[in-house]
């Protein structure tokens, strides 16, 4: 430096540099000290098997005397489930893991174990712990996360048209871990609510109900339940058709106001909308019994040949378990076909230009 002056660093810069160096040193020492190599976290499913790996590395002159696997459940006390000693052999002291846990390699350096027939309650921390000389105990811990795929279902609830909001569809994602998420897509204006129930084994059941004020127009409309959960490869969906019951609505079609004496194959059709389907469809005449020329077949009333007796009011009545409704139509029988133009000349009728 010019003038023989020595460089001066700000005190804050020196402090930060020392702190950084100390952090690097501690981190390096921690890596070196970690001699038991395990996986930090492993995921598994009920009824399946899981392998918990453990290996002693960078041992140098360290003497291994015994290795133990210690299970610490989510809610409970630590307990040995597997022990290996080079002289005394293997031991599995915990009855909860009887015949379900085994060492894959018969040596101290690699005491990897496999647990079979897994249960949701097997979740927890599994510590591979070595007794060594002269350094004392060395260990590494694996967190076993138990997952469960949801049992999904969705169903409609048959309801009656009314003025109050009711549940028309239900969707359930049962016994999953973690909890599922349920959403709906709908062609009707409604809303849904969701509730959860925790099981004793850590699983969660999610229930969702779709509600609306049901009308006859909502019958057979579509709603779709969608379930998302991390164990599913793709979103689960199920589309449902709503079932709304209502009494019949009725109308009569087929009368063209040109029924005339002698016309054949005239017909009336009873048009109805009902859920459930009708239990009875009845044709009546306001003037008494149906004319002899009338033939009734379910929702159709046919006239073989129109005569004056057909000049009446026809009534169609439709019934189902929710009630009955009817509709009527007044039929007027003309003397002649309206398609022809007739001119009255005294007491005779003739076509223009003569017959």
- Percentage beta strand: over 45%
Oligomer description: single chain
Mean pLDDT: 87
Q: What's the number of extended β-strand segments?
A: 30
Please tally the helical runs, counting DSSP H or I stretches of 4 or more residues.
1
Describe the structure in brief.
By secondary structure, this protein is mainly β. 6% of the residues lie in helices and 50% in strands. A six-stranded mixed sheet has the order 2-11-10-5-6-7, with no helix packed on it.
Jot down its keywords:
355 residues, mainly beta, 6-stranded mixed sheet, 6% helix, 50% strand, transmembrane, CD80_C2-set, repeat, Ig-like_dom_sf
Structure overview:
The chain is mainly β and 355 residues long. The protein has one helix spanning 11-33; strands spanning 36-38, 41-44, 50-52, 54-56, 63-73, 79-85, 89-91, 101-103, 113-115, 124-133, 138-146, 151-156, 159-160, 166-176, 181-186, 191-198, 204-212, 222-228, 236-241, 244-253, 259-260, 264-275, 280-285, 294-297, 300-305, 313-320, 323-330, 333-334, 343-345, 348-350. It is built from 1 helix and 30 strands. It is rod-shaped and about 125 Å long. The relative contact order is 0.09.
